[in-house]
Structures are given as structure tokens and as C-alpha cells.
Amino acid sequence: MNTRMTEEELLQGFSKALQEGHIFVCYQPKVNHATGRMIGAEALMRWQDPEHGMQYPSDFIPVLEQHDLINKADLAIFEQVCRFQRRCLDEDVKPVPISVNMSRYDIFRNNYLDEIEVIRKKYDIPVKLLHVEITESSAIGGMELVSDVLQKLHAIGYVVEMDDFGSGYSSLNVLKDLAVDVIKLDMRFLSGNIGGRGGTIISSMVQMTKWLGTPAVAEGVETIEQADYMKSIGCCYVQGYLYSKPVPEDEFIRKIVQYEQEPMVQSMDLISVMDAGKFWDPNSMETLIFNNYVGGAAIFSFQNCHMEILRVNQKYIKEIGMNLTEKEILRMDPCDMLDDENKRIYQDALQRAIETGEEQTCETWRKICSKTCGEDKICIRSFIRMIGKAGDQYLFYAMVQNVTAEKKRYEDLYDSERRFRYAIEQVNVYAWEYYFATKQMRPCFRCMRDLHLPPVVENYPDSAFECGIFPMDYYDMYHEMLRKLENGEKEVEAVIPLTVGRIPFRVRYTTEFDETGRPLKAYGSAALIIDETEQKEGA
Ligand code: C2E
Ligand code: CA
Ligand code: CA
Hints:
Layout: H1 7-19, E1 23-32, E2 37-49, E3 53-55, H2 57-66, H3 70-90, E4 98-101, H4 104-108, H5 112-123, E5 130-135, H6 143-156, E6 159-165, H7 171-177, E7 182-186, H8 197-212, E8 216-219, H9 224-232, E9 237-239, E10 247-248, H10 249-258, E11 269-270, H11 285-293, E12 296-303, E13 306-312, H12 314-320, H13 326-331, H14 334-337, H15 340-356, E14 360-370, E15 374-390, E16 393-402, H16 404-426, E17 429-435, E18 440-443, H17 445-451, H18 462-466, H19 475-486, E19 491-498, E20 503-513, E21 519-528, H20 532-538
Parallel strand pairs: 2-4, 4-5, 5-6, 6-7, 7-8, 8-9
Antiparallel strand pairs: 1-2, 1-9, 1-10, 2-3, 11-15, 12-13, 12-16, 14-15, 15-16, 17-18, 17-21, 19-20, 20-21
Helix pairs in contact: 3-5
Bound molecules: ligand C2E and calcium ion (2 copies).
């Protein structure tokens, strides 16, 4: 039976508990949920009282803090952790980095770092096997002090983790000023509600950690659903009852042996020129530029053919149009909007951006669905630049232009041209264009097909006479006709027997002039004469 010790009992029993080993460490693994491998563990203090049973930190730590005893306890824990790591090293058990909790009272003590260093050296533990967890609340009442301690820890080589991130009101500001190496997000602050508001909060916190290039560990993960959700939003590192409760030393050794291990890796290397951290600061120049001085712009991550939009500016929302909100845009996976062909075009551009490190351009049609506008296709021209990478995950900056209207105009034009050509096919007419300056003739499909002409006939009309389309006895007359057009005549017309079969056609030319009034080209057509009287007249 566990009974809760009173403050007095705790204070009276403390020294003895420490000496007799009633205050000891339990270890809780941190696991990569994507691989199932262990990346480290956290050391958690326990007090097993012979009379009252197990006491938990939430009850006794505040008492120790109030009575200036926490340093002693923390140093004892630190020593036990070092002794444990020594045991692993000596027993050939592959050690994992173990995080120890540092109370803010430890931070306030001048020589705390010296004290832990003495212990670490006594057991000869490589510094990379020890992490230090500090809480956000340590910063309350003195950012300089915390940032100073952080610098010193870094100078020695400790990895520093920000504990309970998101529990305080000033999380963002704290992160901005404290360059911690790992961020711990506590699921318990979200009261299990990952579907709704809690999910939105935690996913934006994970995005933030990505931005800062800092790996994140989700703490208090109790269910597979929570772990899967965290993985889906890009946070694979989890700690919590799902994998293991905090367990005593011997049991933990068994877990180390049982699990495979892997190192924790940096989440994202941001490419130097840009201080990505500043994007989260609403007052920074970067944010100002992002929101006001560039066109539609977005930042997105890309991994295994999966894209996630992390941030868009107001102009992006306007450029895409269709009455979408920022939230709706952030929730979309752009890959879902692209068909296979457009996906290939887009991913090729991403690949080029990765390979060259330079801006790449592409145009893709996307199917967009909005509540108010329904479903529509839009064409987006993107200018893409890679701004960060970590493993197979990449971060991109994209400027976008909605070129749907432009494309549609072009398509309409193409369409009317196609219809025109089709109409010509229907009425037994041959059509072509003749360019005065270059003596080039561009025949219609029908000419090309029936007369075996190339798309551009050079040295017209002489070449047409040479190959027998026109009979030689019409040579002078035809040249005279073209000369008239070149001299400004708007229209000419004649009946000419065409091809070796000498079939009579009515040949007509209409001139097109440039803006200075000079003849530019002539549209020619040849229509078969069916009426016999006309045929006689012509002959
Ligand atoms: P913490 O640093 O946030 O530690 C995580 C707490 O979450 C631990 O509680 C752990 O047992 C608990 N926990 C882990 N997984 C789950 C889960 O899936 N569900 C739930 N509901 N809880 C989970 P614990 O051991 O009671 O420690 C409480 C707090 O006491 C710690 O919070 C830490 O702030 C402090 N603490 C623990 N050990 C030490 C220590 O050695 N030194 C100092 N200064 N503080 C310590
Ligand atoms: Ca902790
Ligand atoms: Ca925590």
C-alpha cells in the first residue's frame, strides 16, 4: 500500500532516503515510432519509502525545491545515471543517451555545472551519452541566466532538451532566444484530443520545430493512435506508456538489449542564407517580406512523394483564388490535386531544384475543390527553390502565379484555329498563307495531305511550279498576281488549272497588312470549280 508522505515526513526522511538508496532512478525509453528503435531514455526520480511505499515526483519535488534540497537530489540522480552508463559500457551493453531533468533551482545555483562535470569525469562518461532537460518555465524570471547556462552546457558538449514545450504561454519567445537541441512536446497538455483543436495546436508546434531545425519528441504518448498521428505530422520520436512506463535499472538494461538502437537525427538543415527561425517571429523583416513584398508564396516540405504546405502568405491565398481559406490550403496535400502527368512535371521541377540548388520553374494544372466554388482546374506557374533538407525530407520555397486565364485564352485561340481548319476540310477548299518577305508558303493540313507538301514551302511560288502543282504556262500570270498583292492590292482572284490533272480551281488571295500599312502576308485559297459555265469562262 502506498500512502502519501506529509511535507514533514519528506523533509525528515530525505537524507536517510538518499543514503540508503530509497531515492533512485527509473528509465523511460524514447523510441522512433517509424523504425521501432530506441533513441534514448529519460531518467525519472522515484522515492520508495519502506513504510509509505512509492512516492511520486509531483508530490515530493515541489517540497524539495522549496527547501533547497532539489540540488542534492538531482546530483544524486545524475550520479546514478553516470554509474548506470558506466555499467553499460563495462558490461558491453550498447548505451543510449540518457536525459536528466534539471530543475530551475539547479540553474540558479552557480556551480551546478561544475558539480555534474566532476561526477561525469569520475565515471568517465562521454558527454554525448548524457542529455539535459530544462523546462520552459526555467526562463521565467531570468532569460539571461538560462541562456548563459545553455551556452555553458553546449560548450561542454551536452545536448539540451526543452521539456514540456507548449505548456507555457510564451513558448515561441522562449524558443526564439534559447537554441535548444531537442524539443519535447507533451501530449498530456492536449487532453487526448488529437482530432480537434489539440491536433491543430500540436501539428503547428511540430511544424515550428521543423522550421527551427530541431528534432521533436512527443511525450506522454499512451496509445498507438497518438503515436501514429504524431508520425503522420512528422514527429516520429515518442516517449510514453505506449512503449514503456519508467522502469528500474535492471529492467531497463533488458529493454536496451531487446530493442535495436539508432541515433536521434537533426530534423532539418536550413540553407544558410535564410534565418528560418525569424519566419516565426511576427515582427521580423523576413515575415514582413513574406507577407508584403513578394507575390504569392508558400513554404512546403516534401518527402517520399508527399507534400505538406507549412506556410502561405495572403497573396498566395488570393492567387489560388476559389475562395479558399488559409486553413483549407494548409490542410491540402498538393500531390492529391495533380494528375499523374502534372505530378511528374512538378516532381521533376523539385528534383531539378534539389540537384541544382537554383530556382526552377514549371506549370501544372491542379484540380481544386472549394466549398463555395465547387471543383475547378487551375494552372499554376511555380518558381521553386530548395531551402532546406534533412535526410530524404526537403523544404521548398515557392512563388506562384495563377496563369489559368492566360492558358485558357491560348487554348481558346488554338481551339478556334482548329475549328477553322476543320471547316476548310469540310468545304473542299485548300488554304495557305504566303509571306512576302521570305517567300514562304504555309499550307493547310489538306494541302499537306493531298499535295504532299511540307509545313513550310520555301521559295514559293517557283517551287510549286517546279513540282507541277501549277502548270508552267501560268508562271507569269501567277507572279503578276503576287506582285499586285505586294503592291498593296487587297484581293486578287483567278481560275487556274491545278496539278498534273489540270483540274480548274478558283484561286483567291487576300492581303494582310502590318501596322504601317505594308503587305505582310496573303491568305490564299483554292476552291474546286464544279459549275461548267464557270469552267468555260475561266478557260
Ligand atoms: P517530466 O520531466 O515531464 O517527466 C515526464 C513525466 O511523465 C514522468 O512523470 C513520467 O512518468 C510521466 N509519463 C511518461 N509517460 C507517460 C504516459 O504515457 N502517460 C502519463 N500520464 N504520464 C507519463 P513523473 O516520473 O511522475 O515525473 C513528473 C515530473 O517530475 C517530471 O516531469 C519532472 O518535471 C519531474 N522530475 C522527475 N524526475 C526528476 C529529477 O530527477 N529531477 C528533477 N528536478 N525533476 C524531476
Ligand atoms: Ca523531463
Ligand atoms: Ca516533460
